[in-house]
Amino acid sequence: MNQTQIPVGGDFSQIFDHKDYLAMISIPDEATCILRGHLILEEVLNLWSSKLTQTEDLYAGAFVPFKTKLVVSKNLGLSEELFRVLDKINEVRNRFSHRKGYELEDSVVESLKTRVNEIVPDAKIQKCETFHVFVGGKDQDGNPKEVTYTWASSDNRVKFVLIFVILMLKLTQWIQVEFINRGINYTIISTNKG
After folding, report:
1. Cβ(188)–Cβ(10) below 8 Å
2. How would DSSP label each residue in 117-167?
3. CA torsion 18→102→115→11, rounded to 10°?
4. Beta bridge partners of 135
5. How do 132-138 and 144-150 pair as beta strands?
6. Contact (Cβ atoms closer than 8 angstroms) between residue 191 and residue 8
7. What is the value of pTM for the model shown?
8. What are the 10-residue block averages of pLDDT along the chain, 194 residues in total?
9. How far is Cα 31 from Cα 7, in angstroms, rounded to an integer?
10. Domain edges within the chain
């Protein structure tokens, strides 16, 4: 595939590190996948709170749980629909943390898919079940390898990744609109030529 790629950086660099997404799709462990996504969402909450309060790091100096950051973000204007989706992902992450041997359930994946498909309708982003991820690289022997992940051919971990990518696209678009409406300066495109 030969598609245009836009480097993401600036204020969004912690949210769109390609290594995080590659790890989520490549590591077969569900718990690790969910935890990585949860950490990315925590960076979203950090960015949202810091930009709205004009503070470099609103949560510096203390451990602040995800749920607290989520509530603070909601109090700063995060939409109710986004709050509910992020809270659901936090709930899933907590199941992995507190239930030995927990595995993603079909009903949880379907519920998340439905919620993400319905949020931020103005974003005009395709539905989770029609989205696919293309990954190219080299296998363990150094041979070129390309894999396309689709909803129909995926297990629940990969379906979660597909849901997560759509969520991040919608969430980023929503945040950009909110920042513009509030007159908040931000950067999303990397201008560094490395």
Report:
1. yes
2. HHS-GGG----GGG-EEEEEEE-TTS-EEEEEEESTT--HHHHHHHHHHHH
3. -30
4. 147
5. antiparallel
6. no
7. 0.88
8. 51 78 90 94 94 89 94 96 97 92 93 96 93 86 91 96 95 93 81 50
9. 28
10. 10-181
